[in-house]
Amino acid sequence: MQAVVTGGAGFIGSHLCDYLIAHGHEVVALDDMSTGSEDNLQQLVGNPSFELVKGSILDKELVNDLISGSDTVFHLAAAVGVHTIVDNPLSSLRTNLHGTENVVEAAAEHGARYMVASTSEVYGKNDSDGLTENADRILGSPLKSRWSYAAAKGLDELVAYVYGEETGLPCVITRFFNIVGPRQTGRYGMVVPRFVSQALAGEPITVYGDGRQRRCFGSVFDIIPAVVELLENPSGHTQAVNLGGMEEVSIKGLADRVIQLTGSSSEIRFIPYEDAYGAGYEDMQRRMPDTTLARQLIGYEPQRSLDDIIMSIIEHKRADAEPSPAAIR
Ligand code: UDP
After folding, report:
1. Which cofactors does this gene product need (predicted)?
2. Is 149 a catalytic residue?
3. Which of 67, 130, 194, 228 is the most buried (most CB within 10 A)?
């Protein structure tokens, strides 16, 4: 593969770059370094098969130029994290809408197969037991910027889908369900690295709302091989595929697990949503994937338990000493 990985310096993107390089592929990572970090790629510096290009997916010419020399595109660049979206609604929307359009257009023009990263957010407030890929979307008001990520990603999927169907190029849309692991920062909202940093610093664990909302966290190490395999073995037409973990936990339960696994003496502090995200914030109460389609297509079976995932983050943070959320926000 001659692959372009947009968002290659980010959390999932950098693990994907590692995996592709380890499997003998050539990789160009494109990243505007807004939420990505060079630290995530330090192990690849000097590797002749790898290059990091610092630039934006909004730079149409640059995107076109990079993709013209590739046969495979993994599009992961996006404005991510609830705090990013709520604090910067306009720039987030621009990146997530126009950036994806640029990437998919260039892939279509140059005949490169492509993957577009999407999210369980597209299901919105649908809290059914095991969301299948064709489950209904239940989004709040378009005038609430909180929904802009879900709305933009839904349109990204349509762009990916329509181009895929029209060009006949292999294309896959991956819907990630709360994917976590080492290198993910808590700076922009993600709960697991935040709780781990807080526990390691002995600070209060900030549980938003009543903590009874549930999530199903998936390991980055389980989903990366699946992403590559889905694109290498396309099913013949474009489809969206759920990828995530199997073990559901409440956010209060997650806080308890993190305290136990770090051996921390942190207390749990409940914070009203409006203090965390601003007035009128609507959270999803439950988000549980049905991964039957991924299992049917590629035999997807997540291997890591929630405790394995939390432990891998604890070990990474202990080695890395990332500051706690209180120190960064
Ligand atoms: N959350 C929390 N404390 C934090 C950060 C997040 O209780 O410091 C909650 C958040 O309100 C949500 C869940 O943890 O219910 C997962 O949040 P995250 O931003 O990781 O992902 P989301 O599922 O919201 O996209």
Report:
1. NAD(+)
2. yes
3. 67
